[in-house]
Amino acid sequence: MKKNAFYAQSGGVTSVINASASAVILEARKSHKIGKVFAAKNGILGALKEELIDTSKESKKFIESLQFRPGGVFGSCRYKLKDIDENKEEYERLIEVFKAHNIGYFFYNGGNDSADTALKISQISDTLNYPLQCIAIPKTVDNDLAVTDCCPGFGSVAKYVVTSTIEAALDVESMCETSTKVFILEVMGRHAGWIAGSSCLAQKSHPNAPHIILLPEVNFNQLKFLAKVKEMVKKNGFCVIVASEGVKNSRGKFLAESGSVDAFGHSQLGGVAPYLANLITKKLKIKNHWAVADYLQRSATHLSSELDRSHAYEVGKKAVEYAVKGLNGVMPIIKRKSSSPYKWEIVSAPLSKIANVEKKLPAGFISADGFGMTNKARQYFEPLIGGKSRVINNINYQAGKMKMVPKKLNAWG
Question: What pTM value is reported for the model?
């Protein structure tokens, strides 16, 4: 009897995460070992609540079109499983649901915390003597997963930030003589500055902005920052700044920490852009504007990278291949073979080397003054925003049938 597969999306979604979902479902349909693919409604919560979507009810055309749909089509969540000795009941519930629905394959599409979840479930399935192939599928706009060269979701955010930086810089350049002289764009990046760093590619276009890039890896120095802003305004007539949300002071404290935490225990950040804008207004008396890219940067399918979409699709495809081969506790990752021309392949890596590990910008990527990036960084970023886009005429904003599988168990909790 064929075993069914479980697929779920976790954490913050991206403009290409559904490409991975599409690949998993389409490849599973081709397999002689996999029955149906049940997609969890709202991530791992869907498994705990036994809220499973029967993807076999969706047409092939709809599943194929998911490659061009932003957001997480099945719903995501921020929910971190505790260690088994703290809450064994959750794991027993998951296995109970898997048994009830004949699930033998587990695909979890997410970032660091999701890799940890997949690793825990792969371990507990052995402990509870329930055969389950657990494969984590990489996804995170932050690009901070260990081992992999880059993360699906990042290239598209980078392209959005680069494009937006160029366009905003041209706007500010136009108005700086009598109006705004400083523009600040806040981007995602709590502990790693990959997204902010990628904005360096905008410097290849006129007017050579951003002039300042602020990273979590470089402690913020107020005096040096204000001096740099003043210098850039004097030199260019204006100054464009791209700042990571996770910029920290010399004591390692977020400049914009709000005091609350999310479901994963991460500090909620209150906005570094308005903090910097207020500082510039008070100390330099220079007119400025700021913007927070926020959800726009991670959902902008119309500005997505075609290479990023290919990465997302291929890791989903490989995940099914690995599961069918009997691999467990691994993640398909992207291995860069060369940068120019850009060549890559998908290989497997153990989750034990990925879960709960954050990859930060290498020191060799950051300029000596801490306000910019090196040529080595540009060579890394350049290919990731590329590829001729197929998106414009294919964008899918449809919801699908989302037919739920009948429940067989008592309610959870």
Answer: 0.94
